[in-house]
Amino acid sequence: MPDLENLKKQAKLVLRWHRQRHYPVAAQIRAVMPRFRNTPDAEILAASFKLRDAQEMIARQHGFASWQALKAGLSSSARPAKATIAGAEPQLFVADIQRSCEFFRKKLGFSLVFIYGDPPYYAQVGRDAARLNLRRVEGPVIEVVLRHREELLSASMTVAAADEIKLLFLEFQSAGVTFHQKLKKQPWGARNFVVKDPDGNLLLFAGPANREPVPEAL
Prior knowledge:
It is a single chain. This protein is of the alpha/beta class and 218 residues long. The chain has 8 helices and 8 strands.
């Protein structure tokens, strides 16, 4: 469980971002606050938003319906022996944010979480539990020949079950996706494939290995 004082600071930071019309926070608010669902960013940032709203948002992000429920949960839970990393968000370097967002939306079935800047220079796309951050840069960060020769991956994503990886591959194939490596069974039993985005970033999609049936005892 997180520390209550840190959560209070997070709520105050969210409130300040809202008052400063910081667009990325609008996407976060919309994602967890039921009354802002389907509300455009501009309307969220123009709406009344107080500290109690920011606290409710933080509580919902941690799986509680309200700030009071979060505090009760914290008081009844033992402090863990170590911190738990809840997620990871790889960052891809791209030349054109709009082009990349369209690729992930139309080809890979992702949705736009937020886009920031005018012209845009930062965005996030997501599909199910996966999140990818897109950062616009001038020129390639990794030399193209080196990236392909060494097969340097920019991100790796997995599906929940072994039979789902073929479904995902067929979905991408029907959308006209460019593959750096088509669906392949690896020596350790797992199957995976690699997609190349418009900027040459290599994205690995993998499924877990099929478990061999355990023989019955004689």
